Amino acid sequence: MPLQKTDGLILRSIPLGETSKILTIYSKDFGKVSVIAKGARSARSRYGGTLEILNHISIIFYYKENRDLHSLSQAEIIDSYLVIKEDLHRTALAMAICELTNQLEVGQEANPLLFRLLLSAFKTLDDTERQPVNIFRAFQIHVFDLMGFRPDFFNCTGCGKKIETTCSFDLMAGGLICDDCLDQGTASMRLYMETIKMLRSLQKTHISKLQPSAESSSAVQQVDEFVRVYLRYHVDGIRDLKALRFYDEIE
Question: Measuring CA to CA, how many Å separate 100 from each of 13, 93, 109, 171?
Fold first, then answer.
């Protein structure tokens, strides 16, 4: 039962007994791990506010091979993202990012690219100059790349020509398809050109470089609908995000 050290973002926290809790952490070196933090909910807990959800922490834990649950030994805060936690909208979006990551990642296997994407999303959400909801949209678009089903928002999957007008998106092929190449039996979704341009921008721009945008409400709504449909098509059992529903309510 060797001691291991890593850092990670707390995705989820659930009570255990009267004084302990189980934390789900997306870690730099082990991917998603679950640890028992004994006494963490006690009034005299040595952890203080270190183990709050959304915190970026450094941990030392007892690693149990072939087990899903490990034991936390030590923890220190690296970043607590106070701007996020003081803003209800940003908190909801950060929670949605955690929920989505928790649903997508199964098993203990490091994914450094996803870990860096998570930290970029949280650091940018913690920047008051940014447009919060577009950070969440960009996170989802970049997750497609990391999960192995990167969408092509530029060229027709049939003839290869660059798309410059409203057309359909072939969900199976993972790309746009012009009207000349579209088969009526294809599982597809119709996209406005403004929507396509917004998706292109979100895909090619690093999260930390996102700028405020001025797309129409119809394009924004269609981007969100596309992301939901595309995720459901490629990821079995994906569930609606509770935090995102809450965000919609307060928005």
Answer: 15, 11, 17, 20
- Identify whether residues 224 and 187 lie together within a single domain: yes
Q: Which of 121-125, 149-153, 161-165, 245-249 has the lowest mean pLDDT?
A: 245-249
One domain for residues 73 and 160: no
124 vs 16, 60, 96, 104, 213, CA distance in Å?
A: 32, 27, 15, 22, 16
Question: CA torsion sign, 34 to 74 to 118 to 245?
Answer: positive
Among candidate residues 33, 55, 80, the one where a domain is terminated = 80
| Judgement on whether residues 39 and 103 belong to the same structural domain of the protein | no
For 50-104, the pLDDT digits (tens) are 999 999 999 999 988 878 899 999 999 999 999 999 999 999 999 999 999 999 8
- Token pair, residue 105, equals 């990642």
Domain interval for residue 52: 3-80
Q: Domain tally for the chain?
A: 2
Q: What tokens does 150 get?
A: 């990167």
Q: Are residues 29 and 46 in the same domain?
A: yes
Residues 195 and 90 in one domain: yes
SS3 of 89, please? helix
The answer to whether 36 and 14 are in contact (CB under 8 A) is no
What value does the mean pLDDT take over residues 151-159?
A: 95
d(CA 140, CA 198): 13
